[in-house]
Amino acid sequence: MLRTSYSCKKRSILVASTLLLVAGCGNSPKLEGRVNKVTALKADFGAAWPFTIAEGELACVNGTQLVFVANGHVYALNEVAARRYEPIDAIHAPDPDPQKRQQGIKLPLAPFLEKGRQLCTQR
Fold it and tell me: Which InterPro entries does the UniProt entry name for this protein (predicted)?
């Protein structure tokens, strides 16, 4: 009886561990196809950093889709990527100028778009 109880506990722990592992894997974003990516940090861009979060990965998927990967989400940076990934608006920072902010103007994405285009030309 003691052996059966120990075996059941061991099996329960194994099942619980497997479920946690599988659940954890489900949260990571999927980038399928050819992917070139680099880590992007707020510290590297200074005032030009256009996001409300401090870091992520800038990626080019299949040579045309520019995306920013952060906190388990993949955000579209261009129209081609917008067909498949989340809108960048969720993390796109507003312009610090009060008048521009009031008009809904956000910080430019130009530095990221340029870097993304460079990633797309790499093989």
Answer: YebY (IPR019648)
**Cβ neighbours for 12, distance < 8 A, ≥ 6 positions apart:** none
Tell me the C-alpha distance between 94 and 105, whole Å.
6
Burial class from Cβ neighbours inside 10 Å (0-12, 13-18, 19+) for residue 56 reads buried
Average of per-residue pLDDT across 71-88: 96
Using 50, 70 and 90 to split pLDDT, how confident is the model at 42?
very high
Q: Could you give the 3-state DSSP secondary structure of residue 100?
A: helix
Task: Give the residue-averaged pLDDT of 17-39.
Answer: 66
Residue whose entry in the numeric block shows the structure tokens 């579209």: 76
Where are any strands of DSSP class E within 77-116?
86-87
For residues 78 and 73, give the distance between their C-alpha atoms in angstroms, rounded to a whole number.
16
Which amino acid would we find at residue 53? I
Alpha carbon separation from 81 to 7, 10, 24, 45, 111 (Å, rounded): 50, 45, 25, 23, 17
